[in-house]
Amino acid sequence: MPDHDILSEAEREALSAVMLEPDLPPQRVLIVDDDRDARELLAEILALDGIHCLTAASGKAALDLLASRNSIGLLITDLRMAPFDGLDLIRQVRESVRAALPIIIVSGDAEVGDAIAAMHLNVVDFLLKPIDTDKLLALVKHELGMA
Q: Which of 34, 62, 71, 101 could form a disulfide with 56 if both were Cys (CB 3.0 to 4.6 A apart)?
């Protein structure tokens, strides 16, 4: 009986090499909030659903992580932080090589002007504290391609 293999030896080797490549690192969420308890709570909520998180206590720390970690696929940030706030952080991200990064704002103290400014910066959503965890999880999973 003749051999009906449709792959050449070179094609078979290339396919094997691709199949043996290690998986890409999981997409991580970077949570930025100057309130440690709020940061850790959000990270725990997401971790319970298998979502890997990194946290930063400031916009500067967040920018450093974004520059060094390609696996960050989503940014969640508070608005009210010092020395620069969440809107300043988002502006800097939008002017960087990570400009297309999806961003969700979580804030307990926001005005209509803040929400409008955020939407002009192309954020995914603006959630008010206390957070609707089901909505947050749905947004995060959608943005990371897990939905």
A: 62
Q: Where are the domains of the chain?
A: 26-143
pLDDT digits (tens, 9 = 90+) for 109-141: 778 888 888 889 999 999 988 899 999 999 999
Q: Phi first, then psi: what are they for 80, rounded to 5°? A: -90, 100
Within 13 Å of residue 75, how many CA atoms lie on the same side as its CB? 33
Distances (CA, A) of 115 to 14, 118, 124, 144: 50, 5, 11, 23
- The superfamily in CATH containing domain 26-143 is Response regulator (3.40.50.2300)
Q: How does pLDDT run across 9-48, given as a tens digit for each residue?
A: 877 777 666 555 455 545 899 999 999 999 999 999 999 9
Nearest to 140 by CA among 100, 104, 105: 104
